Amino acid sequence: MARISFREQVLQVREEAILVSVNRLLAEKGFDVMTVEEVAADVGIAKASLYKHFTSKEELAAAAMVRVLDRALAQIEALQARAEASPVDQLKAVARWTMQVQLAGEMPSLPAQNSVLRAALLANRAYLDRLMQVSDVLGMWITAAQAAGQLNAALPSEVILYTLFARACDPVLGLLKAGGSYSDEQIIEILLSSCFDGLSYRRAGAA
Amino acid sequence: MARISFREQVLQVREEAILVSVNRLLAEKGFDVMTVEEVAADVGIAKASLYKHFTSKEELAAAAMVRVLDRALAQIEALQARAEASPVDQLKAVARWTMQVQLAGEMPSLPAQNSVLRAALLANRAYLDRLMQVSDVLGMWITAAQAAGQLNAALPSEVILYTLFARACDPVLGLLKAGGSYSDEQIIEILLSSCFDGLSYRRAGAA
DNA sequence: GTCTATAGCCAGATAGAC
DNA sequence: GTCTATCTGGCTATAGAC
């Protein structure tokens, strides 16, 4: 095991603090509105110091995405360990976790249109790597659930994958939370039902 | 009927041209990235002239939202005329129209986090008025469909309303279109199915 | 590596001539 | 009402002292 100097540990801790701030600010305001100055002020360092750790605002966002994808992968790994759960239950657990993160105000939100940011993300190995890891595991669960007759096999598996990813930025969560009529847990269960069971009526006993 | 001078007609035409440009740019880039200068250049007038018609960027966005809500209300009115359709079919038709507009690149997208914009929208009578009109009609259809056993009565009606509204900014549409495997019509039918019937398997013949 | 200070740029909004 | 020219301010990013 390589020795890590005290100085390097301090740097790691600082980088972690930066990512916590970026994550929170990205969740609160989104990429376009968040400013690097804000991040620096939130961490309590100078803006120029931030740029020694991350060479651009886009890289800062990418690091935040890597961070949240790592959290997702940890969740997924924990789910894999419990082999008794059916594929569809594992997928529901992932969706539940995703919505919990969003309701907790910890889900970074990036604009889909910004081409500079897109290019930075697509050039970021760490990000792409995690994104593919998540997609691979979820894709396997989806295929298995369809084969087992738990998920609608008429839907393309990519549609199901994208739909699950989209739970991370579903505006309905925020609207219901703003309404104040439901607890976070209730909101999640309601949306889990509307997502998997649909808006239409289901005869009692349907899968 | 008040006489409208030629000069006033020219102004109305110009305002309409402005709104068309704003609508398109809001759909393409979103509010934060769109610039007033861009809008002016697209219309072919000077930025200062734009500010004679609309006193702020937020008001510009609000006017675009009023415009799209008017289009939605026209659709809804046309649906109301066809009384033979069941409530759930009318709701599906609205969702279908909403997704068509988004796929056509004509759905303005506003950030949910921007507080200045939110305040401007909530202070805009024309916007709130249309939003309530749409919500009222859809709300009635939802209640009727639930009473008729077509929609899941266990779901709060506001959840269904919000879920339908959210079709206007569903990222899955863009992801599938970018994939290139499906036509716009196929994408819409697939997402209509996943929205109303859910991701889970349904026994054949279920409503 | 950290800071202060600033370059360089571009946004939203306005002044004032026509 | 339209234009050109400009103001004002905030942004990303960097230089250079410590």
Would you write up a description of this structure?
The structure is a homodimer of 207-residue chains. Helices cover 70% and strands 0% of the residues of chain A. Chain A is globular, with a radius of gyration of 19 Å. The longest helix of chain A is centred in the middle third of the chain and has 25 residues, at 57-81. The N and C termini of chain A lie far apart (51 Å). Chain A is mainly α and 207 residues long. Chain A has a domain at 57-196: Tetracycline Repressor, domain 2 (Orthogonal Bundle). Chain A has helices at residues 6-29, 36-43, 47-53, 57-81, 87-103, 115-122, 125-147, 157-166, 171-179, 184-196. The interface between A and B is large, with 50 and 49 residues. The structure holds a DNA duplex (18 and 18 nucleotides).
Q: Which stretches of chain A are low in confidence, meaning pLDDT under 50 for 5 or more residues running?
A: none
Secondary structure: number of strands of chain A: 0
Oligomer: homodimer
Helical content band of chain A: 55-70%
Largest sheet of chain A: none
Cα-atom radius of gyration of chain A: 19 Å
The CATH top-level class label of one domain in chain A:
Mainly Alpha
Architecture per CATH nomenclature, i.e. the level-2 architecture of one domain in chain A = Orthogonal Bundle
> Pairing-aware structural class of the strands and helices of chain A?
mainly alpha
What's the order of the H and E elements of chain A? HHHHHHHHHH
- Greatest interface and its residue counts? A-B, 50 and 49 residues
What percentage of the residues of chain A does DSSP assign to strands (E)? under 5%
CATH domain topology of one domain in chain A: Tetracycline Repressor, domain 2
Number of helices of chain A: 10
Tell me the distance between the termini of chain A. 51 Å
The best one-word shape of chain A is: globular
Q: Residue-averaged pLDDT of chain A, rounded?
A: 94
